[in-house]
Design goal:
heterodimer; A: 272 residues; alpha/beta; five-stranded parallel sheet; 10 helices; 48% helix; globular; B: 215 residues; 9 helices; 5 strands; 58% helix; 10% strand
Chain lengths: 272, 215
């Protein structure tokens, strides 16, 4: 029983593999809809969130607050969906969004450019040059997004557990290999793993709540959760009223499943 | 039933994965033995031959007869193993040495540097962490350079393999299972066509080696 995140260049066959896995394993399947669900929860139009998630950040751009909020929203939606320990996710940046969670198979699919150009030409009736330009454009956008958000190279094989080359493997063959892998003892949903999945959901929800609150959203706080104990780290201003710590604690405590809150903050003087 | 090449950095667990496949599927497993047999063919020590494979040929030495001879010897020894049937090879550059044969399952095994450092420290307790880490990086760089010079390819590029498996989170057994399942797909099975291709390749390797050493 595993969570499989599928990363791939556009038109590499990721969706077909995701569907095959969902059929064979009977797991829920989640792709772009994750953005719609997250948008609904945040109360923003899905289009805004998708645009932000897919927009190419400027060359020197740092992720802005809104992007961070949307990413936290998507991660929270994903954490909810992953709670049962069974999920196929083929949306953007799965390997990064699910980072730190055990029982995840981070899969990357690769296929030669010519093969992908051919697929696109056949499905959309495009000529070769525009098909190639389209693929490069989408790939570059995703790669830049992942680089800006997470500072990593999307094509780096060390970021994945498994890289399958679709120049050789067909989709049904790749599907068989994954089905067999998921059967391995390390993917059994033990009580330990189930607790990890609950912690991850709480952690994602606390982080989202801290980004939604006007008082804490600019502080770059990080919550980590272990067996219901929330530890919030980062820098916070030492206010004369002394209530910033209380506010952070209150926000974290409002999340169901957050049993205990520990603050590990570095305080700074906002009025030097 | 198939022929599998496993490429890996030193101490990445590639050998353990190969041995697991041998136990599980009854494949012959070879690594260094190929180098020893090749060394006998050209009358040098296996260590000297390994050195030829792991140090970068100079710009001018790239196509010298000398180097050609050593590569041909290893290629011949490996091809002879392939003629005996199901095989897992976990030595250097298998995917390149056998690239003229179609239907081989080319696997790359990755492991985080930290895991590899621990593996080496466990067997060499007198080495320091620093020494171990420097050693691993050096061997990686030399192998990568060797493959770049000899084959114009990036040894780390997953496009050179059918399957790349990272042992950071996956166990040896899981890696073994995924490879075994891949190898059982019909496209990797040892068909009569593939067998005749292998025999022809082995014969061509032997001829080339005889030509070089005789001439």
């Amino acid at each position: 029983m595993a969570i499989i995140s599928i990363s791939r260049g556009t038109r590499s066959g990721g969706e077909a593999l995701a569907r095959c896995l969902a059929d064979r394993l009977g797991y829920p399947l989640l792709g772009r809809e994750v953005a719609q669900e997250a948008a609904a929860q945040l109360g923003v139009p899905a289009k805004d969130l998708e645009d932000k998630m897919e927009a190419k950040p400027g060359f020197f751009g740092r992720a802005d607050l809104l992007t961070r909020l949307y990413v936290a929203g998507v991660r929270h939606t994903l954490a909810e969906a992953a709670l049962s320990g069974r999920l196929i996710y083929h949306g953007l940046a799965g390997a990064r969004l699910l980072e730190g969670l055990p029982g995840v198979i981070r899969l990357r699919l690769i296929a030669p450019l010519e093969q992908r150009v051919q697929t696109l030409m056949e499905s959309e009736g495009m000529d070769e040059a525009s098909a190639e330009a389209y693929i490069r454009d989408v790939d570059d956008g995703r790669a830049r997004w992942v680089r800006v958000m997470y500072g990593v190279d999307i094509a780096d094989p060390t970021l994945y557990d498994l890289v399958v080359n679709l120049e050789t493997f067909s989709i049904p063959e790749a599907c068989e290999v994954l089905v067999r892998l998921v059967d391995q003892p390390e993917f059994v949903l033990t009580p330990e793993r189930a607790a990890d999945l609950r912690d991850f959901r709480v952690q994602c929800q606390v982080n989202l709540a801290l980004l939604e609150d006007l008082g804490t959203q600019t502080l770059d706080l990080q919550a980590r959760v272990r067996r219901g104990i929330v530890e919030v780290s980062g820098q916070a201003p030492m206010l004369r009223t002394g209530d910033m710590g209380n506010r952070i604690t209150e926000i974290a405590r409002s999340v169901p499943g957050a049993d205990e809150i520990h603050l590990k903050l570095e305080w700074f003087d906002p009025y030097p | 039933m198939a022929i599998i090449t496993i490429s890996r950095g030193s101490l990445s667990g590639g050998r353990a994965v190969a041995e697991c496949l041998g136990r599980r599927s009854g494949f012959a497993v070879v690594g260094r033995e190929v180098l020893q047999e090749a060394a006998e063919k050209v009358g040098i020590s296996p260590e000297a031959l390994q050195g030829k494979f792991e140090t970068t040929p100079g710009l001018w030495a790239r196509l010298t007869k000398d180097r050609e001879k050593y590569v041909a010897a290893v290629q011949t020894a490996l091809a002879e193993w392939c003629t005996r049937g199901n095989l897992v090879y976990h030595g250097l550059a298998g995917q390149f040495l056998l690239r003229e044969i179609h239907g081989i399952l080319r696997v790359q095994i990755l492991a985080p540097l930290e895991m590899r450092v621990q593996n080496l420290l466990a067997t060499h307790p007198r080495m320091t962490r620093e020494q171990v880490s420097v050693f691993i990086r050096k061997v990686d760089q030399e192998r990568a350079r060797w493959v770049r010079v000899m084959y114009g390819a990036d040894v780390m590029d997953p496009a050179n393999y059918d399957l790349t498996i990272n042992l950071q989170a996956l166990s040896i057994e899981s890696a073994c299972e995924a490879i075994a399942e891949s190898a059982s797909q019909p496209r990797f099975s040892l068909t009569p066509e593939m067998e005749s291709e292998i025999f022809a390749f082995a014969a061509a390797c032997r001829r080339r080696l005889a030509q070089i050493t005789g001439g």
